[in-house]
Every structure is written in structure tokens, then in C-alpha cells.
Amino acid sequence: MKIIDLATELSATTYPGRGIVVGRSEDGKKAVCAYFIMGRSENSRNRVFVTEGAGIRTQAFDPAKLQDPSLIIYSPVRVLEDLTIVTNGDQTDTIYNNMQAGMTFEESLREREFEPDAPNYTPRISAVMNIHDGEYSFQMSILKSDDGDPDECIRNTFHFDNPKCGEARFIHTYLGDGSPLPSFEGEPTKVSIAGDIDTFANTVWNSLNADNKVSLFVRFIDISNGAYETRIINKNK
């Protein structure tokens, strides 16, 4: 698969929806992840990321304007020992609880499917990063309807061992804007990672559509010892 410039890929559409980028820094020392949310409705745009323990959660920026919280308020990032879990919904908790009980990432997601937001049936995208004894690997998943059929869930899981320096995989909910919104298709896109955490965070944030972007989370994790740095950017301030 050809590697694509991340900024080019992010700016290719006005509405990729929610997205997860996971990979390895240019110098090879850091595991890298990013999670962003976008919104078109007032309810979706009325959000910020806030820290919650070693992870984050979404929160209404203006509680008085919060409408249906069911698909927009959740914990996108949770940490379970050596595992960092990143998702676009409350399946974060499903993965966390089931992996804590000894299930695999893929087994954990057997309990879930795409979101019940007809006619879009937004895919559930998830990733888990495993950093242990100086070794690093990650997995990604997408649960999506079969071309908008609510009776069939397609389940794809992708495993990436020993990621290459300066490379990542990018998976997002929508191919672009539309009505209904078209779901992501195929294998997670191979994209480039450049610079330190601030350079990377600014690249992602500045490449997202200015009208639709809402919040961004970025984390660099030291593969040798698990120490991490985090950046959060919220449009609402």
C-alpha cells in the first residue's frame, strides 16, 4: 500500500467524521495515536475533550444546549495496564471491561455493532495499542453495516506488528460528506507521521475542515518505558 501524506488525506474531504490515527514516530521511540471528532449539528459541535484519569472523555461545552447525549458523550480513550484503547463511542468501555476479563480485542467487539443512527449507521471504529517490554503493536477494528443494511454487520479487524518509523494507519467513519453519510471502506490508510508531538498535533488539527472540526486528542508514548505526553485541542474554549 502506498504511503499518503497525512495532511493531504485529512484535507481531502470536508467531513471524514471521527478518525483514529495510530503509528510510530519518525525516530522510532514513540507510539503515536490521535483521535478527532467533527460535527455538523449543534449537538455534535457542542463538545470538548477533557482528561479522565489516564484517558479522556467528551463533555458538553454548554450543558444547557445538550440534547441527546447517547452517541456523543463517552470515553474515547482508556488505559488498561500496557494497553491504550481508542474508539469513537462507548465501546471503549466494552473493550476495557472484556479485555480486563481476559477476552481479546476482537472477541470484545463481538458484543457490539454499528451505531443505531439510521440512515447513516455510523461505523464503530476502535484501536488498541500494546506496549510491553520495549515491544509495540496495535490493532484496529471497524464495525459497519452492509451498505446501509441494518440487519447485517460487517466486522473487520486489522493487526499491525512492529510498526515502521514515521508511518501510521488512519481509519475514519465516513468517506466524505453526503446524505446518508457513506461509510469508510477498505483497509486503514497508510499515512505519514512527521515531527514531535506538537508538530503532529498541529498538522492534524490544521488539516481538518475549519467549520466541522470539534476536538483533537494526541498522545506520544515512550515505547521503552510507557511514559506519555498528551495534547488536547478543543475548538470550543
Give an account of the 3D structure:
The protein has 237 residues and is mainly beta. 14% of the residues lie in helices and 41% in strands. The strands form three sheets. A six-stranded antiparallel β-sheet has the order 11-10-1-2-12-13, with helices on one face. The chain is globular, with a radius of gyration of 16 Å. The model has no long low-confidence stretch (mean pLDDT 97).
The total count of strands amounts to 13
> What helical percentage do the residues reach?
10-25%
The rounded Rg comes to 16 Å
Give the assembly state of these chains: single chain
Spatially, the strands of the biggest sheet line up as 11-10-1-2-12-13
Q: How would you classify the helix and strand content by structural class?
A: mainly beta
What is the overall shape?
A: globular
Helix-strand string: HEEHEEEEHHEEEEEHEE
Give the number of domains. 1
Fraction of residues in β-strands: 35-45%
Regions with little confidence, pLDDT below 50 for 5+ residues: none
Output the CATH homologous superfamily: Inosine monophosphate cyclohydrolase-like
**Helix tally?**
5
Reported by name, the CATH topology is: Glutamine Phosphoribosylpyrophosphate, subunit 1, domain 1
CATH class: Alpha Beta
